Amino acid sequence: MAKCTICEKGAHFGNSVSHSHRRSNKMWKTNVKSVKVNINGAAKKMYVCTSCLKSGLVERA
Fold it and tell me: Which of 43, 29, 42 is closest to 1 using CA atoms?
């Protein structure tokens, strides 16, 4: 499972609860993209979540 290299955001786990209140396992995956990023003037490929991209924490190559 991919994790954001900037904020370390990963998958979340919990229970899905039906109408009859039976519980089953559920996983929420983060919106992580593989992006070319400028680091010290060089382009490098990283996994970055879309919230970090939108907030401007990373500069795309």
Answer: 29
Q: In angstroms, rounded to a whole number, what is the distance separating the alpha carbons of residues 1 and 58?
A: 21
Closest CA to 45 of 57, 30, 33: 33
The C-alpha atoms of residue 5 and residue 17 are separated, in whole angstroms, by: 32
pLDDT (tens digit per residue) in 26-53: 999 999 999 999 989 899 999 999 999 9
Using DSSP's 3-state secondary structure scheme, residue 28 falls into strand
pTM of the predicted structure, to 2 decimals: 0.76
Structural domain for 45, as ranges:
12-55
- Does residue 10 sit in helix, strand or coil? coil
In a domain, 21, yes or no: yes
